[in-house]
Please model this.
Amino acid sequence: MLLHITFVTPLGDLRTFSVYANEFEQQLEVLNSFVAYGFPVQSAQLTTLNGEVTMLPVEAFDGTSIIEHLSKLEKTYKLILKSS
Model:
């Protein structure tokens, strides 16, 4: 997946940053890093190898790492599936 982020620099310039990663969680961490370092994100979208585009709700990202939360969620649903 390719993550495209449009953000504002400290000088007020509008810039675009793109990064490729196989893991969705990595993409979300990159986006949260921009927010954490004080770069106002104007838009963010994920593009798959098939060309499918998903717009991400930038207001949902507060700069906090989500890896730990996603890991807990994954453990919980695996536990639920295992007990079924």
Q: What stands out?
A: Residues 67-83 form the longest helix (17 residues). The radius of gyration is 15 Å.
